[in-house]
Amino acid sequence: MSLPWSNTEVQLIVADYFNMLSAELKGESYSKAVHRRALKPLLQNRSEGSVEFKHQNISAVLMELGQPFIKGYLPRVNYQHSLRDVVIEYLNLHRTIENQFQTFADKEILKPSNQIDFLKFIIEPPKSKAVFEPSAPAYRKSPIKVNYLEREQRNRNLGQLGEELVIEYEKWQLKKMGKTNLSSQIVWISQEEGDGAGYDILSRNPDGTKKYIEVKTTKLSKETPIFFSKNELDFSVDYHEDFHLYRLFDFEMNARMFKRNGALNEVCFPVPVAYKGFF
Questions:
Q1: Cβ-proximal residues to 176 (8 Å cutoff; 6+ apart), any chain
Q2: Residue 276, Cβ neighbours under 10 Å: how many?
Q3: I want to staple 50 with a disulfide (CB 3.0 to 4.6 A). Which of 23, 46, 193, 226 is the partner?
């Protein structure tokens, strides 16, 4: 049985994680294996699996705090409260990293230049599972107050490119089914009517019935949480049989997508993050 991670070990692996994350956010190449080999001699005989699992725990902490994380390390939420304290301490001591988070969220990106192979475009959605925060306090001690994951999702340039790609996919799919006439009936609602409709794209099923699509796009991995409004939630509940969430991920490098049909509170686990007060 392995010994518990010491505070020194946790500080070392957190610092190493942020070195890799910084390189990734700046678009620089790096090797996780090289970082792991350099780190392991400083730890108490930790296995490769143990080191990787701790990296995934750090991803989960950052995701909970609303910040970008390393795409290759799937967030695993069953971490110790002390790990989050070390991550927050690192953010306190390295305030300039927020500039990289902001650039990640706000930067304008170009439409993928390579032709998307729609036959390989769709993947199975992540297995649904409730996310429980480990002994989380009711407040956030992080010095970074902006949720840059949400800010990235609201990046208009990124959102428009994601919706445009979904329209191309929907047209391709209908034409492949011999429904060319239906492909011409697709409407880009968010462009023509604005963001208040409760969905982004009005497409068609093969039988001609309406298909309401809400598109959520990220440059990060498929596990990245989505953010949606009460209006979007209410619409998805009212039209749950015809409502579809299209989740685009890894958009900048290797865009892929998964789809879920049903109300938003059925296809994911919603967590309230804002309240309205009346007097």
A1: none
A2: 5
A3: 46
CA Rg value for the chain:
21
Instruction: Give the tens place of pLDDT for each residue, 211-236.
Output: 999 999 999 999 999 999 999 999 99
For the record, the structure tokens of 234 come out as 């209410």
What DSSP letter does each residue of the chain carry, written as one string?
Answer: -PPPPPHHHHHHHHHHHHHHHHHHHTT----HHHHHHHHGGGSSS--HHHHHHHHHHHHHHHHHTT----TTS-------HHHHHHHHHHHHH-TTHHHHHHHHHH---PPPSSPP-GGGTB-PPPPP-----TT--SS---S--S-HHHHHHT-HHHHHHHHHHHHHHHHHHHHHTT-HHHHTT-EEHHHHT-GGGS-SEEEE-TTS-EEEEEEEE-SS-TTSPP---HHHHHHHHHTTTTEEEEEEESHHHH-EEEEEES-HHHHS-----------
Asked if 260 and 228 touch (Cβ cutoff 8 Å), the reply is no
Q: Is the pLDDT of residue 31 over 80?
A: yes
